[in-house]
Amino acid sequence: MADIARMAGVSISTVSRALAGNPLIPKTLRDQIVEIAQTHGYVVNQSARSLRLRKTDTIGVVIPLAHETGQLISDPFFLEMLGRLADEITRRNYSVLLNKVIVTETGWLDRIIQSHRADGLVLIGQSTQHDALNAVADNYKPMVVWGAQLPGQRYCAVGSDNVEGGRLAVAHLAANGRKRIAFFGAVDAPEAAQRFKGYKKGLAEAGLPFDPALVVSTPYTLEEAQEAASAFLATGVPFDGIFAFSDVIALAAVGALHAAGKTVPGDVGVVGFDDIVLARHSNPPLTTVRQDLAFGARAMVDLLFRRMAGEDARSTLAPVELVVRGSSV
């Protein structure tokens, strides 16, 4: 920058303001300084600039994985949410820094915050890290989490009505004559636990008994979920409906059912959760509980920027909608 100032016959501060597009510098002089910089290959040292301004113009998007460590960023839900978040963040002229964390020890979130590589954080999912999120929430405000709202929660969260979603799925299956409805998924993370609660609520409202034999612990990846579904089928436990924690698990279950010679929805009705793009293109098209991910991404980024500006922006809950397709009727 000193070299450019010498060549342009101006001060270093004038060069700095000109390269930043400051309108107080006359346009002709600004253009001259920019041309000199481009001709001589000058590039702003963003690290030094961020250190000086204490601002990175970057938002960190973090995927914490503790209980489902095998889940990939290529998971369709993550891909859709990441795309929508990136659109919202870049629309505000900020960059996106993606960080997938396999949580193996305490302090992982503190280390991300203390790296000062981002002006704020969006976390996709709570995993089993509710306490870790609560621990930093009092002192670190620019953080918004996609996930369930829980008692005693001190961090800002955006999520869907998971309990109502589970209830809607089971009510739909029961209304279509299903009497033995299985739950495919895990119940150890907040969102999963709430969907499982909705599953049991739907059974009770339909007058159907809860049977622990119909609760199938299922991993999150397509291949592992299909193996779990096949293993359950091999037990011979009778069932005629499935409510799955996610569309990925539901699609895996459909694959396992077809491989076992069963028809969907003839023998077994299947309902997923999320409404990812693949859901409408599966065979048969998947009935699912739709989460409004466009709303979710927009709300998370809006709340984050408000918190970055010093506001005490609060958590919000999005409604869910049952989308009926061919896998259940």
The whole-number mean of residue pLDDT values reads 92
Number of strands: 12
Helix coverage percent of residues? 40-55%
**Class of secondary structure makeup:** alpha/beta
Placed side by side, the strands forming the largest sheet appear as: 2-1-3-4-5-11
Number of helices: 12
Main sheet record: 6 strands, parallel
Q: What does the overall shape look like?
A: elongated
Determine Rg (CA atoms, Å): 25 Å
Taking the alpha carbons of the first and last residues, their distance comes to: 69 Å
As residue ranges, the low-confidence spans are none
Explain how this protein is built.
The chain is of the alpha/beta class and 329 residues long. The chain has helices at 2-8, 12-19, 27-39, 46-53, 76-90, 108-114, 130-137, 162-175, 190-205, 222-235, 247-259, 293-308; strands at 58-65, 95-102, 120-124, 143-146, 156-160, 181-185, 215-217, 241-244, 269-274, 287-291, 316-318, 320-323. The chain is built from twelve helices and twelve strands. Helix 7 links the parallel strand 3 (120-124) and strand 4 (143-146). Helix 1 packs across helix 3. The termini are far apart. The relative contact order is 0.12. The mean pLDDT is 92.
